[in-house]
Design a protein that fits this description.
This protein has 115 residues and is mainly alpha-helical. It has helices at residues 15-19, 24-33, 39-46, 50-62, 110-113; strands spanning 66-68, 79-81. It has a domain at 15-84: Orthogonal Bundle (Arc Repressor Mutant, subunit A), CATH 1.10.10. The chain is globular, with a radius of gyration of 18 Å.
């Protein structure tokens, strides 16, 4: 899944594409697909319904995480990973950009501890 800006630098991932990863079943599907798998096979392995797996595979496909295997005809549609590498590191989105992270509640940041 390559996403580049007009300047040729990696662009920030679409927030909707990141939200597509919010459902735990979608992570299980990504792990299961490996080389390729159909909704029926995913349902058998994960103990989910074929309809649910088909829906979630479609969402992952919509945002480019997986793709249909070309040249496959018929009712069963095998899916495969679109790419084995996903880079979600904010530092790679815009060269030279500096990002501040807010400390989690109950945790002090390094900057606030240096008085």
């Amino acid at each position: 899944m390559t996403n580049e800006s007009a300047a040729g630098h990696p662009a920030a991932p679409d927030p909707r594409a990141l939200r597509a990863l919010a459902h735990p079943l979608r992570w299980q599907l990504i792990d299961l697909i490996g080389s390729e798998a159909t909704a029926t096979r995913c349902a058998e392995v994960l103990g989910e319904s074929v309809a649910s797996c088909s829906y979630h595979l479609g969402i992952l496909g919509k945002y480019g995480y997986i793709e249909l295997v070309p040249g496959q005809a018929g009712k069963e549609k095998p899916w495969r990973l679109a790419s084995r590498q996903q880079n979600l590191d904010r530092a790679t989105w815009i060269p030279g950009a500096r990002w501040r992270q807010r400390p989690r509640p109950g945790h002090s940041s390094i900057m606030s501890s240096r008085g």
